[in-house]
Design brief:
Elements: H1 10-29, H2 33-55
């Protein structure tokens, strides 16, 4: 109940952003492969940042 007022950590924000990029890439894969590849590359960069945060 009180979780709605809790601020999200940087890791949570990055994970949400990563998930959103993967969803966009999937949708774009049906119409534009090159745009989908760009979104996949962005998602990969976010994943690398997530992995760095998890190691700390």
């Amino acid at each position: 109940m009180f979780g709605i007022f809790k601020k999200k950590s940087k890791l949570d924000k990055l994970q949400e952003q990563y998930k959103g990029l993967l969803e966009e890439a999937f949708k774009l894969s049906k119409s534009s492969r090159s745009e989908s590849d760009k979104k996949q590359a962005e998602a990969q960069k976010i994943l690398e940042q997530i992995e760095i945060l998890q190691q700390q």
